[in-house]
Amino acid sequence: MKLFRESTLDKKDYLYHMRNRISPVRFYKILISSLLPLVIFGCTGLQKPNIILIMADDLGYGDLGCYGGDHAKTPHIDGLADKGIRFVDYHSNGAVCSPTRAALMTGRYQQRSGIEGVVTAAGHRHTGLSTQEYTIADYLGSIGYSTGIIGKWHLGYDTAFSPLNNGFDHFRGYVSGNIDYHSHIDQTGRYDWWLNKDTIVEEGYVTDLITDAAIEFSRNKQGTPFFLYISHEAPHYPYQGRNDTADRTNGADFPVSGSRPDIENAYREMIEAMDEGIGKLLTALEQSGQLENTFLFFCSDNGANRTGSNHPLKGFKGKLWEGGHRVPAIAFWKDHIEPGINSATILSMDLFPTIIAITGNEWPDNVELDGQDFSHSLFPDQSLQERTAFWRFKNQQAVRKGPWKLLIDGEEVSLYNLESDPGEKKNIKELYPAIVDSLRVLLDDWTREMDRYSPRT
Ligand SMILES: [Ca+2]
User: Fold this and answer.
1) Among the four 132, 231, 256, 429, which has the fewest Cβ within 10 Å?
2) pTM of structure
3) Ligand 1 mean position to 97 CA, how many Å?
4) Which H or E run contains 16?
């Protein structure tokens, strides 16, 4: 069990620290819960925990009730936050879809796999995530997990880049950036709904199909540890509810974002359908007795566009303001982790090393990850060691260290203290030139390192 890996505290210090911060009863409760996975599957040889990773598409920081949103009703996701850990400083690695997915799969900055931009239908149909990359699915498959992805892949259109060539043994979903929720046609007019390496005809609303396939996958895996990556389309456009008709039909022109005039209502319906699906999945896991042995993580892949809400953050999808990449994230593991709010700075690429820790395995040989194991942060109020994190998209670069964020957008340089100014309202670069200089040095070093890799998008 590697729950103590890469922390500022070693195991002994951690126990001392915990014992002195909290009541003895709560300390031992947490201690027992932290050792429970070890007891369950480490010593007795029983099944390793299932891992379910649910990612929404373009869901903003302010879109959920548990993050202060009041538009959509999300009782099931809010319930996970109530009973789990809600992260308030979690970031997608990218400000758009494909880069975040590359970082999530590889546990490394997406620049290393060359997926710094979107894998577009128009220009990148014959590229994608190299099958030479070592993915989280490769790792989990190597230790005996069944590995399924249901929903959006967006790391390569060509079947050469299929999830099945990148560590997954089951794929049901779509490979492009978005499809019509009813006709399953992508924005270039191609049919895009797959079972493994073949397109299949399946009728239904995408969010419901994803829910049903996820439940079916988990039911079929009773007795086998599984990794299930549920990659929702909601609330990405086209803005379509369950009761709408298809906008994209073969051979005809269509509005890419959908035809509904009341986009805000459609957006709400889409989030609520996803929430309902998550509720159904939880019920199914409970009924099958799998819930207690399942670590579940929910997150988004980038901030919302102007249809959604990133409140109280500034900026939208595609920008490196906080609203572009600070997104909702919730960890839930029934009876294993204590409920709470955590303010550690965490990125998508951290999931890979964290899951290695949760599954209790040794770090794979010859695998170097940029991500940090945050399994410590599954305990409230425990933070990671201070880290430096970087983002780059088009002509924007950002570096974060502690509360400080340096943002360079073309010629424009800004410094913010996110602790006192999470909304990035006040550029204080003139007040702290030494901090600007030190962050610039870090950013330049990182840029030189990332520029060693060839872009594929
Ligand atoms: Ca997205």
Assistant:
1) 132
2) 0.90
3) 4
4) helix 11-21
Helical residues (DSSP H) of 221-350, grouped into ranges: 263-287, 322-325
Q: Residue 24 Cα, ligand 1 centroid: separation in angstroms?
A: 44
Ligand 1 mean position, distance from CA 72 (Å): 19
Task: Convert the pLDDT of each residue in 196-217 to its tens digit.
Answer: 999 999 999 999 999 999 999 9
Separation CA 281–CA 390 (nearest Å): 35
Distance 445 CA to ligand 1 centre (A): 28
Residues 99-122: pLDDT tens digits? 999 999 999 999 999 999 999 887
Distance between Cα 157 and ligand 1 center (Å): 16
CATH of domain 48-387: 3.40.720.10
pLDDT digits (tens, 9 = 90+) for 302-341: 999 999 999 999 999 999 999 999 999 999 999 999 899 9
* Alpha carbon 96 to its chain's center: 12
CA distance 249 to 190: 9
Structure tokens at 20: 């002195």
122 contacts 188 by C-beta, under 8 angstroms: yes
For ligand 1, the distance from its centroid to the CA atom of residue 328, given in whole angstroms, is 13
d(CA 236, CA 248): 15
Between β-strands 146-152 and 404-409, what pairing exists: parallel, antiparallel or unpaired? unpaired
Predicted confidence (pLDDT) per residue in 226-267, tens digit: 999 999 999 999 999 999 999 999 778 999 999 999 999 999
The rounded Å distance from CA 154 to ligand 1 centre is 10
- The CATH architecture to which 390-450 belongs is 2-Layer Sandwich (3.30)
CA of 308 from ligand 1 middle (Å) equals 12
In SS3 terms, 151-217 reads as EECCCECCHHHCHHHCCCCEEEEECCCCECCCCCEECCCCECCEECCEECCCCCCHHHHHHHHHHHH
Cα 32 to middle of ligand 1, angstroms: 38
Q: What is the whole-number distance in angstroms between the Cα of residue 421 and the centre of ligand 1? A: 26
Residue 56 alpha carbon to ligand 1 centre in Å: 8
Between the CA of 365 and the centroid of ligand 1 the distance, in Å, is: 32
Per-domain boundaries in the chain: 48-387, 390-450
φ/ψ region of 249 (left if φ > 0, alpha if ψ in -120 to 50, else beta) reads beta
